[in-house]
Predict the structure of Phosphoribosylamine--glycine ligase.
Amino acid sequence: MNILILGSGGREHAFAWKLAQSPLCDSLFVAPGNAGTAQVATNLSIGYNDFSAIANAIREYKIDLLLVGPEEPLVKGIVDFLHKQRGLASLRIVGPDAKGAQLEGSKDFSKQFMHRYGIPAAVSQTFTIDTLEDGLAYLEKHTLPVVIKADGLAAGKGVIIAETVAEAQTAVRDMLDGQRFGEAGSKVVIEQFLRGIELSVFVLTDGVNYKILPEAKDYKRIGDGDTGPNTGGMGAVSPVVFANKAFLQKVEDKVVKPTLAGLQQEGIAYKGFIFVGLMKVNNEPYVIEYNARMGDPETEVVLPRIQSDFAELMIATAEGKLGNVTIQVSPQTAVTTMLVSGGYPGDYETGKIISELERLDDIMAFHAGTLQKDGHALTNGGRVLAITAQANSLENAVRKSQEAARMVQFDGKQYRKDIGLDLIRYSD
C-alpha cells in the first residue's frame, strides 16, 4: 500500500516513523514533511492546503491511503474535495469531512453539540458583532476568571483567560469589533472557567466503531512551573497518573459514547481521530474542547506506546472495519521534551545547525520544525524537536528525556526542565 501523510511537524514525523514499521506500507510520502520525515519517507514539496496539487500527487504516486495531520485542511474541506475528484472517490482517507471537522473548526458548533447530547462541559454563551452589547452586559455578571474564545481557528492563540471584567470586555471588543482574529473571531464564546487538572484523551473511530488510544498530558506554557506565554506545547507525558481506570471509564461513558452517538445522529460519517481536551474537576470529566486530529506534542508520546500495526489501524479506520482489529498498548511511560528556538513563542531565528542527534541512544527525536540542507539538519520553526524517551517508570522516562534534551545542540536552544515532574509529585 502507498501512503501519503499531510503535514510538516512532530506529529507527522511520529506518524511516518510508526507507519514505516508496517509490512503493509510499500511506499511512504509526506507533504511537505521535514528533515525527520525524510529519514523514513519521501518528502513532497506540496503545501498541505494546496488541494489540487495533493490530488495530482495522489494520482501520480498511486496513493492508496491518505492520513491528514493538521486541522486546517480538514476544516477547509480536503476530504470533501478529494472525494469529488476524478478517480479518487474510493481513496481511503483518515480524517473527517468538513462537517465533522466543525468539532474543531467552530467553538460555537462544538459547544452546541455538547449541549445537545448531554456531554459535560463548561457553561457558555456565544455572541456576534450584532449582540456585542449583550455580551459586554453578560460579562458584568459573570464569575471570574472567565474564558473568551474566538469561534474559528486562530493558530492556537484564540483563547484568553481574563481575570477582570474590564479585561474580558476588551478581549470581546477586540475580537468582534476590532477583528483581532479576522473571520475566526466573527463569533465569540464566553465560557465558565473550570478549576481542575487537564488531560487529553484520543479516540480513533470509523464512524461506528472506536478505539480509545493512550491518554496524555501536555505542557503549554513556555516556562518551568507553567509560567510565561502559551505555546503550541513544550512537552507531554503518557500515561497520566491521575487518570485511573475508573476515571477513564467515566470519560468513555459520559464523553466518548455520547460524542460518537451525536455524530451519527447528525449524519456525520466521521472517520479519523477525535482529540478530547478534558478537565478533571472533583473526579469528573468536563470537555474543554474537541480537536479533529491528533495533538502535537501528544502524538509523540502516544504513538510510541501503541504496539499494534499502525497501518492496519489506519486502513481499518478508513474502510469502516475498526471493530475487526485490536489495539495493544505498552505499559511503559513515554515523556517528550520539546526543544524550541530562542525567542519562541515570539520572534525567533531559523537556519541554526542541529548537532549531536547521532548520539541519542534508545531515544526518539521527532522533528517538528526542521529542514535538511547541505547534509545538515537546520532549525526551521519555533518548535524544533520533540525528544521522546520511554522507560518502566515516570521518573526514569523524565530523566532520559531531559538528558537527551541537554545533549542535542543548536544556537538559542530552549526547553522546559520540569516536564512530568508535577505528575511524579501528584496526589489526589
Observations:
- The chain has three domains: 2-87, 123-192, 197-424.
- The chain has a mean pLDDT of 96.
